[in-house]
Amino acid sequence: MALLQISEPGMSAAPHQHKLAVGIDLGTTNSLVATVRSAMSTVLQDDHGHALLPSVVRYAPDGAVIVGHEAQAQQSADPTNTIVSVKRFMGRNINDITDRAHIPYKFVSASEDQAAKILQIETRSGLKSPVEISAEILKSLKSRAEKSLGGELVGAVITVPAYFDDAQRQATKDAARLAGLNVLRLLNEPTAAAVAYGLDNASEGNFVIYDLGGGTFDVSILHLSKGVFEVLATNGDSALGGDDFDHRIYCWVLDKVREVTANFAPLTEGDTRLLLTKARQAKEWLTDNFEAQVLCRLSNGILVDVTLTADQFVEITQHLVIKTLSPTRKAMRDAELSISDITGVVMVGGATRMPHIRQAVETYFQQEPLTNLDPDKVVALGAAIQANVLAGNKNDDDLLLLDVTPLSLGLETMGGLVEKVIHRNSTLPIARAQEFTTYKDGQTAMSIHVVQGERELVSDCRSLARFVLRGIPPMAAGAARIRVTFTVDADGLLSVSAREQSTGVEAHIEVKPSYGLTEDEITSMLKASFSSAEEDKKARMLAEARVSAGAIISSVTAALAADGNLISETEQNAIKAKIDRLQTIAAADDATAINQAVDALNHATEAFAAARMNASVSHALSGKAINSLEI
Amino acid sequence: MSSAQNDYFQLFALSEQFKIDTKLLDANFRKIQSTSHPDRFVTASAAEKLASMQLATLSNEAYDTLKNTARRAKYLLEKHGINAVADTNTALPMDFLMQQMEWREQLEEAKTGKDISALDKLHNALRTEASALESELADLFDHQKDYAAATEVTRKLIFIDKVCSDIQQAIEYLD
Fold it and tell me: Count of CB atoms within 10 A of residue A125's CB?
């Protein structure tokens, strides 16, 4: 292990110091962690040389939590305590899991509240939410990375399927925070793949990323030009993946066995898991072979021995392949492109190794798909490149990702109809406001129901949040003006606010939907994970507060030196006074006071920061004008 | 934020007219995003993050408005104090209204018949219609400066845009 570097007290680290940042592909079947080392994006391996970490978590009888290959090996022996494909349950409630009969877990609904029936899984270590289970996978990858890189990570980019909705994204972010990771950005998987692919091949033009993972399908269409990756459209199915192909084989095998076996007893949970594992192995075998044998003995002594040919496999799964083409066509229409506009089609995800998938994609796009990067690794490699950029290791600013929101966001209006406020495939970040009014005379409150989806009826969309705006002054129906603002940040996460404005009376509420865990729950779980004494915690908090004070003082001082002329001398002096104040407070031992002074300095520099932003934009544009004159 | 940059045309260094250089719009949009996108400010102060979020959001909104011809025309009219979609602004010539009803009928017919190719055809016909209106708008806005006439044409274009998106939605449900 490399030695940790420690800088002299009071001195900030050298500016060129490489910050340790990773990209994590938190997959349904396998997860990976990658980083940029010596300008190369590399997947990090565990002690045994494995790059892929099976996304399997086992709660062992001795209370230990086992992640990866070792857990995977026990999945048939201990199915109810060994959780596979947990990603399928992220941000979902119990009613979302339609194929519960085929899943060996005991699902429990965490809440009586109909709107927030976040599911949990009963294990021998107690009730576990998908967020907590995913956090175990992330912790394992984090420790792999820190061991391999020899230092603490400054942050991570975590990938999510492009078609994940707000609930699924929020759950993923919660899991990362629970694992003690600083999330630099949630990045859409196909976009990450495009980065790895595009930079590797110095490509320009319109590219389709066809990403069929273990449990999710995404298709994104990007325009690549001079380091800018602009997502034109994205579509998909967040409940369609390689697992479904395994499941088809599993059902087919069971049918075959039932044909020849009288009085076939119900399967145990272990048998189900065993057969699904055999089904997955048969699927993988059929990629390079004409037939696969499924051979195993069930717990009731019955011997399963059936042979599946490649043709039969195509026949029983062709409908799943066809199911991926509908989102593909939708994305093409949204991007307003035709087949002839497409420069290349990139295949991502282990499931795209199936020959009939490749064939279907080739037929649709009339060109051979590109497979020169490992479909299992390309997402993690791209995420690592973006993490490196976001952490500030790369300053030449030649890589920019412009991503979109995959699903429309709207509000419920009278009659259970959806009024869309932000349309799908809008470039992020985005803020959009719309005015609504009251339905009845004298109405003083309004229930605001935020939904996500493309359908016209609220009942066909996903409910994200409900809140009530109170304090509307009594007026005639239709007279009040309620302005509802939706904001989606660069992580694709939504916040909603509403205010009544016709009378100047302001009622304001801020809603950030949270799924799985509340802010308090995460904080208390994080606190519990620090076993250190109270004194250590205080010292750590003080140290962290001083670091952030030092960082903002040096950045604002540098900004004033460079661009102070953008604001008046009075404004400059006001900022300088706040800097002096923060310096004085930072010398004392009160972490809370330091943080407050940091906030105050931040607030005092808002107008200055906006002025600098405008100036740099003007500079960027005028640079362009001069260049075009020279040509 | 300065008022100059709240003007969408000025933001992208374009002159305020209907016919714009869309290549320059695209290029300047990317330049602005390259400078202001939140990805550039992940490790910056809260004030800088806020400024980044505001400018990136504004430029997305501005780009979305200017790259679509109906929204661009509507925005230009707003600059001249005209709300093209105001309730009071309902006048449209009879022949256009008849034409519009015909399109709606064709749309419903194709929907009932689950006829995607008929929907595609109708969509193409409407796009042709739209580009004729766009040429008209370029003349009315940029040469004649006849904003009253431009308002009527803009309303037609907005109608066509709406029918087009209804067609797209119909195709999507059928597919």
Answer: 15
SS3 A368: coil
pLDDT tens-digit profile of A446-469?
888 999 998 889 988 888 888 888
φ, ψ for residue A217, nearest 5 deg: -120, 130
ipTM rounded to 2 decimals: 0.90
Residue A228 at interface with chain B, using a CB cutoff of 8 Å:
yes
Contact at CB, A609 and B1, closer than 8 angstroms: no
Residues of A (590-609) whose Cβ lies below 8 Å from B: 599, 602-603, 605-606, 608-609
In the structure, what pLDDT confidence band is assigned to residue A534 with cuts at 50, 70 and 90? low
Question: Among partner residues B32, B60, B172, which is closest to A430 by beta-carbon distance?
Answer: B60
pLDDT for A518: 61
Q: Residue written as tokens 């992220």? A: A90
d(CA A554, CA A12): 9
Cβ–Cβ below 8 Å for A429 and B56: yes
Q: Do A620 and B60 touch (CB under 8 A)?
A: no
Q: A211 an active-site residue?
A: yes
What order do you get walking across the sheet with A228-237 strand by strand? A342-348, A205-212, A217-225, A228-237, A400-402
Asked if residue A111 has pLDDT above 70, the reply is no
The nearest CA of chain B is from the CA of A182 a distance in Å of 11
Q: Which residue has the tokens 């044409």?
A: B153
Integer CA distances (angstroms), A199 to A31, A274, B21, in order: 22, 41, 29
Of A390, A397, A603, the CB nearest to B42: A390
- Residue pair A35/A387 in contact by the 8 Å Cβ criterion: yes
Q: Which residue of A has its CA nearest to B65?
A: A426
Q: With CA atoms as reference, report the closest residue to A149 among A229, A49, A221, A42.
A: A42
- Tell me if residue A25 is catalytic: yes
Question: CB-based contact (8 Å) between B109 and chain A?
Answer: no
**Residue entry with tokens 């389709």:** A208
User: What is the pLDDT tens value at each position of chain B, 175 positions in all?
Assistant: 444 457 999 999 999 999 999 999 999 999 999 999 999 998 888 999 999 999 999 999 999 999 999 999 999 999 999 998 877 666 778 888 889 899 999 999 999 999 989 999 999 999 999 999 999 999 999 999 999 999 999 999 999 999 999 998 898 888 8
Dist CA A345 CA A328 (whole Å): 12
Residues A185 and A51 sit within 8 Å (Cβ to Cβ): no
Least CB–CB distance from A333: residue in B27, B64, B171: B171
Q: What is A152-218 written as a DSSP string?
A: --SEEEEEE-TT--HHHHHHHHHHHHHTT--EEEEEEHHHHHHHHHHHHHT--EEEEEEEE-SS-EE
Residues in chain A with CB shorter than 8 Å from the CB of B48 are 555, 605, 609, 612-613
Of B30, B42, B175, the CB nearest to A330: B175
Q: CB under 8 Å to A474, separation ≥6 — which residues?
A: A441, A442, A443, A444
SS3 A449: strand
Alpha carbon distances (Å) from B45 to A259, A363, A560: 67, 50, 14
Provide the residue type at A239 as one letter: A
DSSP string covering A398-425, please? --EEE-B-SS-EEEEEGGGEEEEEE-TT
Q: What is the pLDDT of residue A507?
A: 64
Cα separation of the two ends of chain B: 45
DSSP string, A184-202: EEEEEHHHHHHHHHHHHHT
Whether A608 and B60 lie within 8 Å, measured CB to CB? no
Top residue of B9, B57, B116, B175 to mutate, by most chain A CBs within 10 Å, is: B57
Entry pTM: 0.88
Within 13 A of A126's CA, how many CA atoms are on the CB side?
6
User: Which residues 158-187 of A have a C-beta within 8 angstroms of B?
Assistant: 184-185
